[in-house]
Amino acid sequence: MTNLDLTEMRAELDAKEADLRRSIDRLTAPVSDGATIGFGKRIGEGTTQAIQQMADASSAQTLHATLDAVLRAKAKLADGTYGQCDVCGEPIDEDRLEFRPWSTCCMKHA
């Protein structure tokens, strides 16, 4: 990890965390008052909205998983283990960390 700028990595992780939190908040915002959601015999506005909410919930789950990885990477920065695989303890390739700073496992264990 000699070539990575840890200050830059922290800034990228902070930015990613903020972006993920905004996206999750948007996807999980409560339905507006007066909206009806349901599946009926015919496709209508309620059905379309219900399908969209199901898709948003799935996207939010994916974003939560990425957020967990970002928070883990930030914890590793704080405890001095950033760049080491969580599984085997070997160094994570710098190209991988530059591409995806929240990587907490080497390619073998990803």
UniProtKB/TrEMBL annotation:
<dbReference type="GO" id="GO:0008270">
    <property type="term" value="F:zinc ion binding"/>
</dbReference>
<dbReference type="InterPro" id="IPR000962">
    <property type="entry name" value="Znf_DskA_TraR"/>
</dbReference>
<keyword id="KW-0863">Zinc-finger</keyword>
<dbReference type="Pfam" id="PF01258">
    <property type="entry name" value="zf-dskA_traR"/>
</dbReference>
<feature type="domain" description="Zinc finger DksA/TraR C4-type">
    <location>
        <begin position="80"/>
        <end position="107"/>
    </location>
</feature>
<keyword id="KW-0479">Metal-binding</keyword>
<keyword id="KW-0862">Zinc</keyword>
<protein>
    <submittedName>
        <fullName>Molecular chaperone DnaK</fullName>
    </submittedName>
</protein>
